[in-house]
Amino acid sequence: MAHRPRIGAEPILGLVIRRWWQFFLAAPLVGIGLTLGAGQALAISITPPSGVSPNGNAIYNLYLIISIPAIVVFVLVEALLLICVFRFRRSAQPPGYVPPQFHGNRPLEITWTVLPFLILVFIGVLSFRVLQQDFVRPSNAATGLALVVYAHQYGWEYDYPQGFSVQTEGLNAVQNPLVVPTGTLVRLQITSKDVIHSWWVPDITGKTDAVPGYYNYTWFKISKPGVWRGECAELCGSGHSSMQIRVEAVSPAQFRKWVAEQEAKAKTASVSPASRPVESRSAVAAATAASF
Amino acid sequence: MALTLAPPKPKSYDDTFFKPIALWLTTTDHKLIGIMYMTTGMIAFLIGGIFALVMRIQLAQPNEHVVSAELYNQMLSAHGTTMIFFFVTVFMTGIANYFVPIMVGARDMAFPRVNLLGFWLIPVSIVVYYMGFFTGGALNAGWTGYPPLTEKVANPGLGVDFWAVSLIIWAISGIMASVNFLTTIVALRAPGMTFRRLPLFVWAQISTSILLLIVGAPLAADLILLEFDRQFGTNFFTTVGRPVLYQHLFWFFGHPEVYIMILPGFGMISEIVPVFARKPIFGYSTMVAALFGIVFLSMGVWAHHMFTVGLNIYLETFFMAMTMLIAVPTGIKFFNWIATCWKGSITFDLPMKFAFGFMATFLLGGITGVYLASVPVDTQLHQSYFVVAHLHYVLFGGSVMTIFAGIYYWFPKITGRKLNKTLGEWHFWTVFVGFNATFLVMHTLGLEGMPRRIYTYPGGFGEQDWGPTNLVITIASFLVAISVLIFIYNLIYSWRNGEPAGDDPWQGNTLEWATSSPPPPYNFERVPPVRSYMPLRDLRRMRERAAQLERAAAPPPSTTSG
Ligand code: HEM
Ligand SMILES: [Cu+2]
């Protein structure tokens, strides 16, 4: 720092802070403390959910890491602004004070170009590693359960490899959740039959768009049994807010039982529900062929 | 002196302002056109604000039904479109129209009649957009209007067509204005006004115009293709076409558009901060370089709006890197403003208050932007209320605060009167507190999983109940509304009754302060000599030195002091 902020002049701060480096150390700590404190006190979220699936959890961790330089930079710059307000206002300057007329300062300018750049490179590299790890289509071998998901206005259809499907329409997703086994890598292959939708269950992982014409992939591996809420995250018409999602994770044993039930139901039904997915799948295939 | 051809004495604008409408309809004076742009923008701001308030009432509690989902979607789209296209961009064009020619020492824009046409296309474009409301429903797909939702199958009404045509007209107007600004700045500069002496606001306008010139046409192209789909049955963006291609084209325009909305604001702050800190701007040439860094990078970041559509991860990494890089020149500008204030002798008149308000709030928008740039994190935050908070921090805390700062700074030049200070203080504190109370907590809604663009949310459905937070936001948004009313009242009140300002109320640095307030139709009787980027400060110093010399030359007092 070429110019030392003369914080000592400020009566209250001056009691504890006598050197500029103490200020640069204290300000971020106070900032992080305040942020965490406010989050706790008001019972509001200051991070995304920690993620019951490894990819959701990786996002959460990345968010936390980014938050450290973010809070430091935020607090420092706000503090510099406050110093300008209180220390460099005309009424705080000696009478007849004429400000020095400097036009620049090379070392300083290089510092505040290179330092942010390095911070950003750091964030970028970490983000890229998460991308490489968690944002590629899981191989068939790694996949425990491969589902095909069709979105439509305003519901979801999840086709199970066993030949039956879970279908939701608007709010009835609440009674009609997508059931998956815990501890199993579930791969979703997502597309849409009409407009663009987006599959988002915040507690599990980030969102994946359902775009007509091609498949998008996402996956999760839920660590504990439970029900998680989500909803469509891409404006898709007047029923958008009703386009709910529920994911219920059950133990693998329970899941097998549930699958058996569904298969029995499918058999007794007069029209095989399996015919629908097949038909829609070929429709998408045709659309895909037409556009590529 | 006596022999110079003096132009006829100007009629003062106080007379002409209330003169027949015909003058306003046909004037090619860049100042009157600038005022018309600004008035249009302000009206759009109020209309967009009313939509915002209705949306906030609808969202105040879970499961409310003040408006239907369909109407909510229309108001949402009208709010976004109005604020972005018809308020901020138009208002910035108005300020530039008024001040760029004066600041470079020109008498008018290079193409005054194109200027007039360009302006009148804006009300046309607004009227065309709003026709949708009277013909069965306006655009209802958000300001981005993604197909296939905007295709005929999903959206048979006329609203989408009106919107597309409206924005095509808007883009044409924008391109006209850009050509005009660039030509004016390149060709009509006063003697001595070299590029290295251009005020930073003018540099900002150069970069803005370059951006709009480049990206205006892709927007129009995108919408024309969409209209082909709708009217002639082509399949560019339908379910069997490539809906994602629309997004590429749209954001190739859309992301630079956010810089089109903020760069003039950066320019204004770069003018205001040195004047009120009584120091030269820190790092003039790095400020210009940063502007062009932003122009260049902003055309390579568009896909950061598309991190969830399933692009190749290496492509995503490229766009992530470019997006993060753009934080560097923006950061440079920030630090330069702070360094300009450093060791200054700052007076916090209202323009400076708003400049600081801008820096304090825009900073958070910049920082949340880095979170959004990180692809994995973005998949959580994208299309959630976190993004709504982010975009209001950069648009409201950014562009709108700079617009306020600019108005308080230049209102005296436009009207000859200062804005009332008491009302201005009330305006500042209500908007600063209200704005932050409204939008700061919105971040947490997004982190809790509330998507944007939902017209209602079920209460106590899952673990989270978003009701209380939303209620706080709605209440705070009314504080913002009150602040805007105070501001509008101040504008109207001070236009007639404000304290007379004189030609140079702030001891400015740039040429507009050399002429009368308001300036005559031809702007300058004589353009002062330009020997640096602060010609008016030079002039003041020269006068001071002359006065000193005079004092020195005067006969000494009778008692010599040695
Ligand atoms: C009192 C001030 C304001 C309030 C209360 C407000 C509120 C809102 C609300 C409730 C939404 C919709 C959120 C959603 O359902 O997704 C929204 C969206 C938006 N607002 Fe504002 N807003 C205000 C001012 C502004 C200003 C000044 C601008 C721009 C300069 C702006 C630009 C936008 C944009 C671009 C959107 C996105 C629209 C879309 O999703 O298509 N807003 N605002
Ligand atoms: Cu949807």
Q: What would you note in describing this structure?
A:
The complex is a heterodimer of chains A (292) and B (562). By secondary structure, chain A is of the alpha+beta class. Chain A is 43% helix and 20% strand. Chain A has two domains: 12-38 and 46-92 and 107-134, no CATH class; 145-268 and 278-291, Cupredoxins -  blue copper proteins (Immunoglobulin-like), CATH 2.60.40.420. Chain A contains six helices and ten strands. In chain A, strand 1 (145-152) and strand 2 (155-159) form a beta hairpin. Chain B has helices at residues 13-16, 21-26, 30-59, 69-103, 112-134, 159-187, 200-232, 243-277, 284-298, 313-325, 327-341, 350-373, 375-381, 385-415, 421-440, 442-447, 467-497, 535-553. Chains A and B meet through helix 3, helix 4, strand 7, strand 9 and helix 6 of A and helix 4, helix 8, helix 10, helix 11 and helix 12 of B. Copper (II) ion binds at residues 154, 197, 232, 234, 236, 240, 243 of chain A.
CATH class category name of the largest domain in chain A: Mainly Beta
Shape, principal axes of CA atoms of chain B: globular
Number of strands of chain B: 0
Number of domains of chain B: 1
The average pLDDT score of chain A comes to: 84
CATH superfamily descriptor of chain B: Cytochrome c oxidase-like, subunit I domain
Contiguous uncertain segments of 5+ residues of chain A: 1-12, 272-292
Main sheet makeup of chain A: 5 strands, mixed
Order of helices and strands of chain A: HHHHEEEEEEEEEEHH
List SSEs of chain B in N-to-C order.
HHHHHHHHHHHHHHHHHH
Bound molecules: protoporphyrin IX containing FE, copper (II) ion
| Main beta sheet of chain B | none
What is the typical, i.e. mean, pLDDT of chain B? 92
Name the structural class of chain B.
mainly alpha
CATH fold-level label of the largest domain in chain A: Immunoglobulin-like
Rg from alpha-carbon coordinates of chain B = 25 Å
- Show unreliable segments of chain B: 1-7
CATH architecture of the largest domain in chain A: Sandwich
Strand residue percentage of chain A: 15-25%
Q: How many discrete domains of chain A?
A: 2
- Give the termini distance of chain B in whole angstroms: 43 Å
